[in-house]
Amino acid sequence: MKNNEINDQEKKGQELTPEESKTLWENISVGIDRQEKKKKKQKLGVTTMIIVLMVIGFWGYHRMTRPEVFMAEDRDIELVLKDGSKVKLLSGGKLTVERSFPADTREVYLEGNAVFRVTRSGAHPFIVYGNNYQAKVLGTVFKMMQEKNTFRVELYKGKVAVSENEHKDRVYELSPHEAFDNYGSRKVAVVTGISTVAGTEKTSKDNIQHINLQFDGARLDEVLLVIEKTYGIRVEYPAEASATLVSMHSENRTGESVLQALALSTGLTFKKYDTGYQLEK
Hints:
Blueprint: H1 2-14, H2 18-65, E1 68-71, E2 77-80, E3 86-89, E4 94-97, E5 106-111, E6 114-117, E7 126-129, E8 133-137, E9 141-147, E10 150-157, E11 160-164, E12 167-174, E13 178-181, E14 188-197, E15 200-203, E16 212-219, H3 220-231, E17 235-236, E18 245-251, H4 255-266, E19 269-273, E20 276-280
Parallel strand pairs: 5-7, 17-20
Antiparallel strand pairs: 1-4, 2-3, 3-6, 4-5, 6-9, 7-8, 8-11, 9-10, 10-13, 11-12, 13-14, 14-15, 14-16, 16-18, 19-20
């Protein structure tokens, strides 16, 4: 009996009072809270570090891969590309060059006007993408001019192949002192000779053997405007025939012979006067 009483008294001595239990629980809770906050801080620190590294990596990748953009805002600027090609970007022009330049194909994107002096490379073609058209060269000197829908390339040295982006099978190859012009319409393609006078290039009306005309469903009034500008002649025609669609190809012809062929294809009558030409019904 005495032993049992002693054990009961020892157990009672080991039991905590309500106040001690409360204090002990609060200490345990505080310790748990501290551990949880510490874990959260550690997780937050790791997460923040990961985000920072991701941002730095993305920024670095973006900077290393985004194209280089050159702007000629209010004056001409001269550029030297990584392959040694030189570009005179005319006022108002914009040139975009991929970071991968020069790759197997040297590609640049032009808005506005520029003169290119391309370093020759038989293995790596140089392509200038413009508004709906592109000019492909191996090594040459040429000028590209664009305004709204108008696209013109003047070649001074070497060779250039001009094509429309949506019709790459239609290729117009230029030789030195020739120009390609669409006269503001994608249904028109004209290759003419150019001559240099006092440092400026102009269409050579006398050099008619180098004139190549291509019309693909163009309106008659549009076609006649091109013929007038190209050959420097004046043509009268009935207003009611303006919307007549014309598809024809003429190469190395005089202006008069082109008009005769045009009259035949549209069912009009061709007449020649002292002051110019006329197409009649």
